[in-house]
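Each record in this resource describes a single protein on a pair of labelled lines. An example record follows, reproduced without changes.
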Amino acid sequence: MMNIKMKLDWVIPMCITGSHNAFTDLCLFKEELYCCFRQALNHVSDDGTINIFTLNVEGKVIARNRIRQENCDLRDPKISLTPDGKLMLIAYARSIQVEGQTRPAKNLCWISADGRSWSSAKSFAANNWWLWRVRWHKSQAYGFAYNRSANAIDFYKGDPRRTFQKHVRSALSLQTHQLAYPNESDMTFIDNCCFAIVRRDADSYSAQLGHSKFPYKHWKWLDLRFYLGGPVMQAVNNELALVAGRVIHKNKLVTAVFILQLSSGIVIQKLFLPSGGDNSYPGMVVIGQTLYLSYYSSHVDNKSQIYLAKISL
């Protein structure tokens, strides 16, 4: 299975309204694609809301929804399918100062049974630790949370709707591994082994590829020797994974999808998507031999827009 090839079929814009559309994720639910993203004044403004677009496989938007939270900037939403067949949306709620009071940042989750109406928000995991993404495996959700000042990521498990507990403290950290500022992450499961990919923004800035066997208490890390921002990954067989995110290409930051050999960390093939400027943070769905990838980019008119790419495998 080392001869997987990728071909870009098309890229279409999904959202061109609003000042700044960014930070996407993608999920398949009841044969429809669900794309979530943040919409705000700019990359770091205090007015972030979450848009949720329902699309068919041709990329046509057939429904829209929006989630707001009072006095919060909702950042980097992620969407997933729970084991009992519901959609779960998570986001990091950065609190806005009200009357001079500073409140902690929280991880929030929402649930939808039909993809159209959503529950009220519920907080989970630790305050001020950014739980970047959850992935489900055998009825459990797993995810890494990072804290910049701690220079560490902690590994969580459970169910954000009920209880979501710290499972491993400092799974990757400056203190334990001499690797500074680990942060954004994703993971994929093959049988009882979990593979994870983690962005870093200090010293060599090189991403790390980790793996751990059940019960995922002990992690081993491999330096990928290249920068990767906003990573997303999905195994395609026992040896390879599709990975996408922001990379450096010809001294520019662009969005790319590539095939990664999990045992060695070697990139087998790479495909660059139309992108530039403020860009990346993709979501990924594989249906048969087709990869759908959501991402954002500001390469057209310097305007941050949401795109959907269809890629044949």
Summary: The chain has a mean pLDDT of 96.
